[in-house]
Amino acid sequence: MKRLSRASILVLAVLISGPLFIGACAGPKGPTQAELAAIETERRRSAQEDSVRAAEEATRLAAQAEEQRVREEEDRSRRDAEEAQRRAVEEARRMAMLSSIYFDYDESELRADQMAALNENARKLREYQPEDNVLVEGHCDERGTVEYNLALGERRASAVKSFLTDGGVAETRLETISYGEERPASMGHDENAWSKNRRAEIKRK
Known about the structure:
With 205 residues, the protein is of the alpha+beta class. The chain has helices at residues 6-26, 33-96, 115-127, 146-166, 191-197; strands at 101-102, 134-139, 174-180, 199-204. Strand 2 (134-139), helix 4 and strand 3 form a beta-alpha-beta unit. The chain starts with 5 loop residues before the first helix and ends with a strand. The model has no long low-confidence stretch (mean pLDDT 88).
């Protein structure tokens, strides 16, 4: 048998190992078109799910914010209503309260320092519950006879009634009565007490 030369053996080795070396260097194959399409489909599906979740979360947060706004608006309305009611009650109490009118000793003439109270009384009677009837009571201190003080109390009540009538209060609403010295506002026996008892009281009936 004829021996191969060293050069022939080398050529044969190259021919045999070449394809193996080329195959090894080529490495693994990349994804197929089908695989790429599947990856893209999954990416889109995931992105769509994320978008849906984000929209749902935004809707939930908006609903919570609206509920909070409604609660705050209801609380504000309730507080406003309570405050309005409180003010209305306070105003009604203030308007219903009429000031007593005070007189000098043995006098039925209206004093200058009582004009502001008289005008305020007239305004309240005109503007608040103008359908109310009103009783004007005349009072005196303890000095003087019973008969004299009853007459003096009547003159005081009449003076106040005339002022209220001139101030726009219908005369048909006004009635007078005198209690003389029978109903003192203060039980003392000095000028401090007497000055509080020489008065006319205006009361809604």
